[in-house]
């Protein structure tokens, strides 16, 4: 039995998305920048997809910039904020994705910007009082960059409250919404967010494509230079089939959101009950066991397993066909461990192995039962 519980790393493509991509690849190979009929046809696909995506989050089509994914989008927004908007300080947290953390470090070295980290508690909750204190220093133009849903522990940030604080103190607000788009609703018409990053492969779309939401009249200039694609904001021939696949995946995600959210939440709740029955001492990293403060798709647990056995846990699960993660997929080649968990772990269980299980509509209680039985035999 092969079981995929690593949907926070990437999701399987929906069949309808595969069909949409295949149809475009077979039917439309033109360059969207070409003026002949083949190019116009490809351009029509791209612009229709842009309108569909904008509609799903109540944005204007010209506020959607297609990118290669979340990492490029994060880098684009941070770099352009410094380069074009005269941002001299970035406020973020130490539990952000490395696409943000490493980009900030590079900007600090290249441009001498100031970096400030808002406090988080031992559950990874952002201290909004500390953020307000940091924002009161309005001497330097500031960008706040805080992720909507933490990819490792599942905590959900209140974007409205953070955005209101940023507006009050005249700071720009960017959110890495890679784990949120397609799983939560967004109304960019009223949400006080200036910039947003998204990636298609987190909501059953293709890899290698995503988008940035850039609010109109913010003043951002091109990040990648070359042709005039994306209204000059992002040069490079558009990946037409991937863009269409992304728009189809997002359309289906929101069309089925209420039903799928309930089913996946039921599965997560069932998993939590079963893991507590198996390991009464289990620790939940972050707020992932609180459905009101975390995403319904993810659980990150520290298991009371002795050191001598913990080293074999990943191998044991993989041998039994179970795919999960020790942290984010972007860290799988690292020996340093999760920077997020290092910010949270308490001494009483800092040596326990932590695993992230992330679910989708394609998973079942039968799969959870198999996982629990595999852990029983470990």
What can you see in these coordinates?
The structure is a single chain. The protein has 378 residues and is of the alpha/beta class. The protein has 2 domains: 3-11 and 257-376, Alpha-Beta Complex (Aspartate Aminotransferase, domain 1), CATH 3.90.1150; 15-255, 3-Layer(aba) Sandwich (Aspartate Aminotransferase, domain 2). Helix content is 39%, strand content 12%. It is built from 12 helices and 12 strands. It has helices spanning 15-27, 37-56, 70-85, 98-111, 128-135, 159-168, 240-255, 257-278, 307-310, 313-319, 339-344, 365-376, and strands at 3-4, 64-67, 89-92, 114-117, 142-145, 172-176, 195-199, 210-214, 283-284, 298-302, 322-323, 354-358. The strands form 3 sheets. It has a 7-stranded mixed β-sheet, with helices on both faces. Strands 9-10-12 form a 3-stranded antiparallel β-sheet, with no helix packed on it. A two-stranded parallel sheet has the order 1-11. Helix 2 (37-56) runs parallel beside helix 7 (240-255), helix 5 (128-135) runs parallel beside helix 6 and helix 8 runs parallel beside helix 12. The longest helix has 22 residues, at 257-278. The protein is globular, with a radius of gyration of 21 Å. The model has no long low-confidence stretch (mean pLDDT 94).
